[in-house]
From TrEMBL:
Keyword tags: 4Fe-4S, Chaperone, Heme, Iron, Iron-sulfur, Metal-binding, Mitochondrion, S-adenosyl-L-methionine, Transit peptide
This protein's encoding gene: RSAD1
Residue span(s) of domain Radical SAM core: 33-270
Gene3D superfamilies the record matches: Aldolase class I
Entry-linked PROSITE patterns: RADICAL_SAM (PS51918)
Superkingdom, taxonomy of origin: Eukaryota
Function: May be a heme chaperone, appears to bind heme. Homologous bacterial proteins do not have oxygen-independent coproporphyrinogen-III oxidase activity. Binds 1 [4Fe-4S] cluster. The cluster is coordinated with 3 cysteines and an exchangeable S-adenosyl-L-methionine.
Annotated SMART domains: Elp3
Protein localization: Mitochondrion
Organism: Cavia porcellus
A Pfam cross-reference name: Radical_SAM
GO molecular function, one term: metal ion binding
GO biological process per UniProt: porphyrin-containing compound biosynthetic process
Protein name as it appears in the record: Radical S-adenosyl methionine domain-containing protein
Length: 442
């Protein structure tokens, strides 16, 4: 999952820090506008049964067991604190991610949803996703999660090849994955997603496409393709370093991605985001909120949030990260009502950079109307219309700027990172031309 990261910030942060620029009202909607009182909610369950060889997400294996009642109390407390702080009246979606949230008890999921509904409007048709790791006996437990209020499942299937699953350190077989998928589809028809990885060490194009074809015979209406990112500090990274396993080949991974998205298109899936594919309208509304730079609260160890803390008298959106380590996080929640470790106010330009980088990940891109919600003076035409480099990207068929807005073409979506190398500096340049920073000592 790509959440807005520190990358875009780094491009401009140093200059701004030196110039002491005003942190303005970075929120698109004026205060009191219902949009500023809506948010998505992410809940992080930090525990896993076992550490996968490739994963560097915030997850822990609890040797002495988990005190789930205590963890649940803290998650509920933090949810209440952050909903109040954000002045959130309506929660449009809830996502239980991790870690392995399918290891939590359905009671914990129900308690969180009840806690939200006590203080905010949680519409009956809100998307409530739970990430599920495949197991050999999935049925009854999945039904209990449904009874607790979950209405969408995202299954971490990863691969349909047992040798690859072993390399990844997964606890399940391909058979378990298909069994879990079938049980999930029976219980949540039209609302099941699967994650499939590509670019694994030693993986070849033909067999991987074979897996994807097989998956198409079993899957529901949503699929995510994730290219392996080899992360320092993981077991797989060490194996590659010492030559025990071949290094992943980025060119081959790009080929897999290109062939995979073409295959999914033929099968009737809309690629609505760089890594995400849906048919029959089964787009994830929670993840859509991230790409549209909507507000979201992050509850639980290491969760990220982006919202305006109205309750603290602020008018500016903040990027927030909760304390990573679960025991420390719990101590902070017990003491302060929340475990927020880092708060970074986003200034106007930083928010626009996120609107650009996140919005272009989707097939609709950034509409003029969407842009206006965040920036009322500079239009997309003002920023990009006169740029020779942007014109060149349009001539190359990678980018479109028209009456609808700015978006990637089908070809452009596959090379978005390289487009942003042109687009982000252009936005910064036009921004600074309009409001030059004060000259130090001037
Ligand atoms: C990789 S994405 C998979 C989404 C899935 N393909 C789907 O369609 O729903 C989900 C993962 O991203 C991370 N994540 C998502 N939102 C987050 C947030 N607000 N804070 C921290 N981590 C988050 C969590 O590790 C979560 O397990
Ligand atoms: C953090 S996991 C959480 C969900 C669940 N525990 C699982 O493993 O399926 C969410 C997704 O992130 C993706 N992911 C984790 N580490 C990754 C990596 N190093 N490179 C690419 N994708 C990764 C996997 O596809 C996984 O399905
Ligand atoms: S990939 Fe999922 S199950 Fe594996 S360690 Fe990471 S969070 Fe846990």
């Amino acid at each position: 999952m790509v959440l807005p990261g520190p990358r875009a910030r780094g491009l401009v942060a140093a200059a701004r820090a030196a110039q002491g620029r005003r942190v303005g009202s970075a929120e698109g909607s004026p205060r009191g506008d219902p949009a500023s009182r809506r948010a998505a909610l992410y809940v992080h369950w930090p525990y896993c049964e076992k550490r996968c060889s490739y994963c560097n997400f915030n997850k822990y294996v609890a040797r002495g067991g988990v005190d789930e009642a205590a963890l649940r109390r803290c998650l509920v407390t933090e949810a209440h604190t952050l909903l109040a702080l954000g002045g959130v009246h309506r929660v449009d979606s809830v996502f239980f991610g991790g870690g392995t949230p399918s290891l939590a008890s359905p009671h914990t999921v129900a308690a969180l949803l009840e806690a939200v509904a006590q203080v905010a409007h949680l519409p009956a048709d809100s998307e409530v996703t739970l990430e599920v790791n495949p197991t050999s006996a999935p049925g009854s437990r999945l039904a209990e999660f449904g009874a607790a209020g979950v209405n969408r499942l995202s299954i971490g299937l990863q691969s349909l090849d047992d040798a690859e699953l072993q390399l990844l350190g997964r606890t399940h077989s391909a058979r378990d994955a298909l069994r879990t998928l079938a049980a999930a589809r029976r219980l949540f028809p039209g609302r099941v997603s699967v994650d499939l990885m590509l670019g694994l060490p030693g993986q070849q194009l033909g067999p991987w496409l074979g897996q994807l074809r097989e998956l198409l015979r079993h899957c529901d209406d949503h699929l995510s393709l994730y290219q392996l990112s080899l992360e320092r500090g993981t077991a797989l990274f060490a194996q590659v370093q010492r030559g025990a396993v071949p290094a992943p080949d980025p060119e081959l991974a790009a080929e897999m991605y290109a062939e995979g998205r073409a295959l999914l298109r033929t099968a009737g899936f809309r690629q609505y985001e760089v890594s995400n594919f849906a048919r029959r309208g089964a787009l994830s509304t929670h993840n859509w909120t991230y790409w549209q730079c909507g507000q979201y609260l992050g509850v639980g160890p290491g969760a990220h949030g982006r919202f305006v803390p109205h309750g603290a008298g602020c008018h500016t959106r903040e990027a927030r990260i909760q304390t990573l380590e679960p025991d420390n996080w719990m101590r902070e929640v017990i003491q302060f009502g929340h475990g927020t470790r880092k708060r970074v106010p986003l200034d106007e330009l930083e928010l626009l950079e996120e609107v650009l980088a996140m919005g272009l990940r989707t097939d609709v891109g950034i509409t003029h109307q969407h842009w206006r919600q965040f920036e009322s003076q500079l239009t997309l035409w003002d920023v990009f219309g006169a740029s020779e480099e942007v014109k060149r990207l349009q001539e190359q068929g990678l980018l479109l700027l028209d009456h609808r807005g700015l978006r990637c073409s089908w070809e452009g979506l596959a090379v978005l990172d390289s487009l942003l190398l042109t687009l982000l500096p252009r936005l910064q340049e036009v921004w600074w031309q309009r409001s030059p920073p004060p000259v130090p000592g001037g």
